[in-house]
Amino acid sequence: MIKLSDVSLYYNEKRVLDRFTLSLPKSGSVCIFGPSGCGKTSFIRVLAGLTVPDSGEVSGLDGLKPSMVFQENRLLPWLTASENVSLVLKEKNDAEARYWLEQVELSADADKLPRYLSGGMQRRVALARALAYGGDFLLLDEPFNGLDNALARRLLNLITELYKEKLVIIITHDKELCSNVDHTYIVDGLPLTVV
Fold first, then answer.
1. C-beta of residue 114 within 8 angstroms of C-beta of residue 75
2. pTM attached to this predicted model
């Protein structure tokens, strides 16, 4: 079990997490829902090890590697969709990269550079890359931005099926999306608290 105990985090003098405590299951899908600026991204950056909290303890992460979709797609513009996915594979394998693009319903665009893809298509490349990487748990920061509701639901079903034995944490503004996951935490305002 991953646990945050009395975790506090400040950016300059702005308090983002204040003695934040939360226990997460070993597996299943968790949705963190809340308004912009309430600390959701900071929370998963702490879980990913990208941000060190000012105080408190994060336990249960030893030896675990996360796979993550950031708020930004972070695609390399000079590589095709397939090449962007191949970057995370142990051995560069175009067939495997194309498989993951097919899973996110993007196989016809595997050879396109990011600038020729819509924002939603770029988002799916970023998601395919995270799924291809694997990881011990999955952190998704607004993973369905730019996607229509039907496609977002299909991809959520894909993710929860692929990761049913692992933990998936989804940050979202979409309250309806939260109804399709195992656990939902609603946060409201700074500093981040669970209500």
1. yes
2. 0.88
The sign one gets for the Cα dihedral 140, 23, 167, 88 is positive
Alpha-carbon span 97 to 153, nearest angstrom: 22
Element at 193 (helix H, strand E): none
DSSP sequence for 103-152: HTT-GGGTT--GGGS-HHHHHHHHHHHHHHH--SEEEEESTTTT--HHHH
**CA pair distance 185, 21, nearest whole angstrom:** 12
Structure letter (DSSP) for residue 56: E
* Cα–Cα distance for residue pair 75/72, rounded to 1 Å: 9
* Strands laid side by side in the 2-11 sheet: 14-24, 2-11, 55-59
pLDDT tens per residue, range 28-68: 888 887 777 777 888 889 999 898 999 999 999 989 999 99
